[in-house]
Structures are given as structure tokens and as C-alpha cells.
Amino acid sequence: MFIVVAGAGKVGFHLARALVSDHELLIIEMDPARAGYVAEELGDEVVMQGDACDAATMERAGMERADLVVAVTGDDEDNLTFCQIAKAKFSVPRAVARINNPQNESLFKDLGIDATVSATSLIMAHIEQELPWRGLIPLLTLRAHGLEIVELRIPSDAAIVGRNLRSALLPQRSLIVLVIDPDGTPHLPAADTVIRAEDILLAVTDIENEEGLRRALTSPEP
Amino acid sequence: MFVMIMGCGRLGAQLAMMLEQEGHDVTVLDLDKYAFDHLPADFKGGKFLGDGADQDTLRRAGAERAEAFIAATRGDNRNALAAQVAKHVFHIPRVGSVIFDPIREEVYRGLGLHTINPTKVEASLLRDAVLKAPEE
Predict the structure, then answer these.
(1) How far is A158 from chain B, CA to nearest CA, in Å?
(2) Which of B76, B78, B107 is facing A89, going by the closest CB pair?
(3) pLDDT by residue for chain A (222 residues), tens digit each?
């Protein structure tokens, strides 16, 4: 697969290093010093110095034969423009963008970016999970049907503790797909699976019903 | 009409004054408080310090009741992002964006944004000024 990456910061560099042995890869970086460093580490043929949003640079990069573009700069506006030009002008079939401002996540999807990765949201959700707060971590968005895969940890005072899954009033289009017990053993859940404190549940849910699912599984006894 | 302008450089400030003189209610946003110095002292519209491409900032500046939005910073990508936020998140009925790079401008026009390309406009004005003017 031919992959073009915009931005050789920490994310871009490590991504490129992970992909370069299995794919044809080109990383475009604006800063000459940074581009030079990455060229030394990964090879001259992997790096191009220039403005990734500039059509002439994109042409030189061979954008029209790219199978995938990935925009991972620290600026959402640059990531969006790079992906939009790649798709609109060079007909690149798939574009993935890093999101820095979590508020831009749904806009990017509405604008046709195929997948987004928001490190900020992910880190925030993981930290919130560690706080005494009944959180839910969105792990993956299944864009086509408005579904997502989420992770929840069952607090010890949750009403569901000691009961089976049949008794949980889950919202529509929500399904528990995996239960991981506190020892780390995964189980496929059945209707009679009893939920224990500190179990980790993976669920598929309609994004709209995320809050209802969180309440059903983590709310304390009324 | 309530008009929001992102970017208070020479262009944004000139536009803000022009619209205010025509009787519009204008709010200008900029990240740099010194940018508002481009506005004359008698400008009565709103001056909002903040990132005009950020949804919270736009909401606080009144984007939900804006009737028009113009992105006029020097950054093409910022303008394109802000204009698309104005259009797709706040559903502001009239959205315009300055895009200096002619190729990027074509792409964004193709994607349905109302774009102005100062580079092309200036080039043709200069051509006309030089070639169509009588010889001195």
C-alpha cells in the first residue's frame, strides 16, 4: 500500500517507523531540520520537505497513486485541509486525520474524513476512568452505522453488581460483547453471566445511547 | 445583519468598518489583541479575543445568531476550517472565506464554500492597471 503521511512530529515519526517496513511510505514535513532528522533515521526516500497542503508538493509526492493519507500534524486546520485536498483533488480513497481539538471530531466525520484519532479525547477518557467518576471510554467509532465500541469498569457500588446480565436494562442497540474479570480473564457474556465489581465490560452501542448504557451499568442502587 | 469576521488584520478591519458603515452589526474575532488596533477608534462593533476556528469560542462570540460569517485571516487552512465550522456546525446562512492559494481555493469552491482568492483578484487588477491604462 502507498501511504502518504503529513507531519513528522512525534506521532508522524513513530507512525512512519512502524509502517515503513511493510508499506511504501512518504512523510511530508515542513520544517527542514526535522525533515533532515527523519531522513537520517528512516532513509532519504521516505521523507519530503515541504508544505503538505500545497498542491505542487502533493503532486511531487505522487499523491494521485496514494491508497491512504494520514494527517498527524499538531494543527487541526492543516490536517483537515491536507485530507480534503487529497480526497477532492487527487481522489485518494481513504483519509485518516489526527484531531487535536476534540470538538472537531464530528465535524471532520461530517466532512468526509474516513477516520479520526483524537489523542486528547483518548487521554482524557483514560484519566477520567482513573478518577472517582463513573466513566466510559469510547474505544472505536464504527462510522457507518453510528455505533461505537466502549469500555466500562463496574464500580463496587453499582446496582448491577451480583446480578446477571439479563436483569440489566440496556438501551436499544446496545450489546455487551466481552466481560473481563478482575484477574484479566476474558469471557463471552451470556444472559446468566453475573457481573462483579471491577469487571471490565466491552460493549457495542449506538453513540446516542452511550449515556443510557453508562447509567444502566454503573449507577448505584437507587 | 449580524456579521462575524474572523481575523482583524488590515483586510478584516477594513471589511468590518465597511459593513458597519452600511448599518450591519459586526463582531470581529482575533487571537491577538493588538490586531484590534487596525480598527479605528470609533468602531462600535464587538471585538472578541479568541480562536475563531474553535466551536466554543464561536458560540460565546454569538455564532448561533450570526447571519453571516467571513473568514479573513492570513492562513488559508484556518480560514477553511473556520468557514466549515460556521457552515456545518452553526449553519450560518452566509459564509465566505478568503483563500490565498489559487489551487486550494478551487478545491474549497468545489466543496461548496464561497471563496475569494485575493491572489487572482490582485493579479487581474494589476494587469488591468498596467496594460489597459493609456501609456504615459
Answers:
(1) 34
(2) B107
(3) 999 999 999 999 999 999 999 999 999 999 999 999 999 999 999 999 999 999 999 999 999 999 999 999 999 999 999 999 999 999 999 999 999 999 999 999 999 999 898 877 787 777 766 665 557 888 887 766 888 899 998 988 899 999 998 888 899 999 999 999 989 999 999 989 999 999 999 999 998 888 899 989 988 876
Map chain A to HEC letters: CEEEEECCCHHHHHHHHHHCCCCEEEEEECCHHHHHHHHHHHCHHHEEECCCCCHHHHHHCCHHHCCEEEECCCCHHHHHHHHHHHHHHHCCCCEEEECCCHHHHHHHHHCCCCEEECHHHHHHHHHHHHCCCCCEEEEEEEHHHCEEEEEEECCCCECCCCCEHHHCCCCCCEEEEEEECCCCCEECCCCCCECCCCCEEEEEEEHHHHHHHHHHHHCECC
Residues of A in contact with B104 (CB under 8 A): 53, 55, 81, 85
User: Nearest residue on chain B to A101, judged by CA atoms?
Assistant: B54
Residue B50 lies in a domain: yes
Give the closest-approach CA distance of A175 to chain B in angstroms: 30
A76 touches chain B (CB under 8 A): yes
On whether residue B57 sits in a domain, the answer given is: yes
Each residue's pLDDT tens digit, B85-132:
999 999 999 999 999 999 999 999 999 999 999 999 999 999 998 888
Sort out which chain A residues have CB atoms less than 8 A from B89's CB and list them.
107
CATH class, range A124-218 = alpha beta
Q: Scanning every residue of chain A, which has its alpha carbon at the shortest distance from the alpha carbon of B56?
A: A103
State how many domains chain B has: 1
- Would you call A35 an interface residue with chain B, using a CB distance cutoff of 8 Å? no
- Decide if A100 touches B, using CB distance below 8 A: no
Topology of domain A2-117, CATH: Rossmann fold (3.40.50)
CATH of the domain at B114: 3.40.50.720
Q: How many CB pairs under 8 A join A and B?
A: 54
